[in-house]
Write a structure and sequence with these properties.
alpha/beta; Rossmann fold; about 575 residues; 3 domains; single chain; 22 strands
């Protein structure tokens, strides 16, 4: 009798959902799935990573870029725990993602078998967990049901990660045809996100609140944005002449070149913008959770009820009034919300013309660089990136003070121009930028620029081997100050002149890059950067440009640490 393997059916279900790339590290617990990838290699590509954390970051980046769940496969125990960093990133960043975990066989479960972990407890779907849903597939015939539900859960409401646990004996089992129809279990149809629309009464109330306002401000961000929704947001802002700030690390939600752009509402916020948030009489938050980073540690908006009138629009009903009590809470997905807002009739004149101009003027003033000590001028380097990178270039970064340079000085054209251009972890996960950049290069073919720190790079730098294996090209600008700079900054604030645990003895990064198959160069002067960037753009292979920084200069948003400055002066 003809048989069909469960692992093959799983791969067919992914293909039916439009998956073109899956990332992972192979494990003996899901050999039947790997065989399915081999069988369908012409329709889906399995990207072999060097560590599960890098694989999960690549899947998360893919989900951010496409709006469809990025897919990652790992084995049980250590594989799943390594991948959990990407799951946590997807959860806090509201990114659709699927993590498939090979598991122990059913007949060894609950005996602490080799690498056994209770994944339902570990990933814990809850308001404090890492995943929206965690399920184990014990019946191979139900694979299509579980996979389709996982895609729906990952995309609907607030997007996020779903974990599916796959016992190895289930994956290797043979499926028999239905005794009546003679058909084998088959993939279900492609699932798309459901659109939740704003109710007309809430939109009327929002219009009345706008008409009564003197100093309104929009904060846009979060997951679920598409090109059409970003374009609708821009039309809404233009119709009402509303200043728009982007939530933390969602700086491509609204065009940074637009005269209504107010800046990024995140870590190291422009002090003038922070004051604008405090002075506003109406905050319209479209999409963001209003988490700690976007609210300045919950200080720009008071808890639990802000001084400002608050309209909170979010795709998840559970997120509304969860932290802040809104004056108006609207449960709507971003596509539906933005399209509803753009047709909201606006008056011929509004009362906040000067306010809107002032918000943009504050942003432009914050873009003006100022001189810093040392031979490397980071604002000038970012200006060089702005000059030479194409408008659709993808910029990625991990976590660290180094990221503040592109956050402050680089202007994203935004989704309204037709493409997502920023991949950055709102949960502050180090090591994200390198694998995210490689995934973007693999899946889009566009120019990719990764800004990395030395400590940040060393967490997933091994994924350059993945890039070389699959012909992916990214350009990495690595800022090397021989320390964990962000922690050192906090250390100097709380324990002046007593550094501990933050100094790094680093490898020769340029040589390391060459060993992986990238070109590797090192610069010590600002003037050396532009020719190296132009060469990297012209080169077929990826390039790492190490920027050697003075380890004594610790910066935050372009300002020399006062403690470091006094220490340097004392040494003189």
């Amino acid at each position: 009798m003809t048989q069909k393997i469960a692992g093959h059916l799983l791969v067919e279900c992914l293909i039916a959902q439009g998956v073109t790339h899956a990332f992972g590290v192979p494990g003996e617990s899901y050999l039947a799935v790997l065989d399915g990838f081999h069988l369908h290699a012409d329709r889906i590509r399995f990207i072999i990573n060097r560590q599960e954390g890098g694989a999960a970051f690549m899947a998360e980046a893919h989900g951010k870029l496409t709006g469809r769940p990025g897919v990652c496969f790992v084995t049980r125990g250590p594989g799943a725990t390594n991948a959990s960093i990407g799951v946590h990133t997807a959860y806090q960043d509201s990114t659709p993602m699927l993590l498939f975990v090979g598991d122990v066989a059913a007949n060894t479960r609950d005996r602490e078998a080799f690498q056994e972990v209770d994944f339902c407890s570990f990933f814990g779907p809850s308001t404090k967990g890492m995943a929206k849903r965690v399920e184990r597939i014990d019946d191979a015939a139900r694979i299509p049901e579980y996979v389709a539900r996982a895609f729906a859960t990952a995309m609907n409401g607030r997007p996020g990660p779903v974990v599916l646990v796959l016992p190895e004996d289930m994956l290797a089992s043979a499926l028999l045809p239905d005794p009546v129809s003679g058909a084998f279990p088959s993939a279900l149809a492609r699932v798309d996100a459901v659109q939740a629309w704003s109710d007309p009464g809430s939109l009327r109330t929002l219009r009345e609140m706008l008409l009564a306002s003197q100093r309104p401000l929009v904060i846009a961000g979060g997951g679920g944005w598409t090109v059409p929704s970003a374009q609708a947001l821009q039309r809404f802002a233009e119709n009402w002449n509303l200043p728009v700030g982007n939530a933390f690390r969602f700086q491509d939600t609204f065009d940074n070149h637009h005269p209504l752009y107010a800046g990024d509402v995140g870590i190291g916020i422009n002090p003038r913008l922070a004051q604008r948030v405090r002075d506003s009489d109406l905050i319209i938050a479209i999409g963001p959770r209003l988490g700690e980073m976007t609210t300045g540690g919950y200080s720009l908006l008071q808890l639990p009820r802000p001084r400002q009138k608050l309209v909170h629009i979010h795709a998840s009903a559970e997120e509304l009034n969860r932290v802040y009590q809104a004056d108006l809470a609207i449960n709507a997905s971003m596509n539906a919300a933005a399209r509803s807002l753009e047709v909201l009739s606006a008056p011929a004149m509004v009362a906040w013309e000067d306010w809107a101009r002032g918000c943009n003027a504050d942003y432009q003033a914050n873009m003006q660089p100022h001189a810093l000590p040392g031979d490397i001028d980071m604002p000038a380097i970012v200006a060089t990136l702005q000059k030479h990178l194409p408008p659709d270039a993808v910029l990625t970064n991990g976590a660290g003070n180094f990221a503040s340079w592109v956050h402050r000085f680089f202007k994203h054209h935004g989704l309204a121009k037709g493409f997502r251009t920023q991949l950055a972890p709102t949960n502050g996960a180090m090591g994200y930028g390198v694998p995210a950049g490689i995934a973007a290069a693999l899946c889009t073919g566009r120019t990719v620029l990764t800004m990395a720190g030395d400590g940040d790079f060393l967490m997933n730098g091994q994924e350059l081997a993945t890039a070389a294996q699959y012909g992916a090209k990214s350009i990495i600008v690595l800022l090397n100050n021989s320390m964990f700079g962000t922690i050192r900054m906090h250390q100097e604030r709380d324990y002046p002149l007593r550094p501990a645990g933050t100094q790094l003895r680093n490898p020769d990064f340029a040589a390391l890059a060459r060993a992986y198959g990238y070109e590797g160069v090192k610069i010590t002067m600002t003037s050396e950067f532009e020719p190296q960037l132009l060469a990297a753009l012209a080169r077929a292979q990826g390039t790492l440009i190490e920027v050697a920084l003075d380890p004594e200069v610790i910066t935050t948003r372009g300002t020399l640490s006062a403690i470091t400055r006094s220490a340097l002066q004392a040494r003189k």
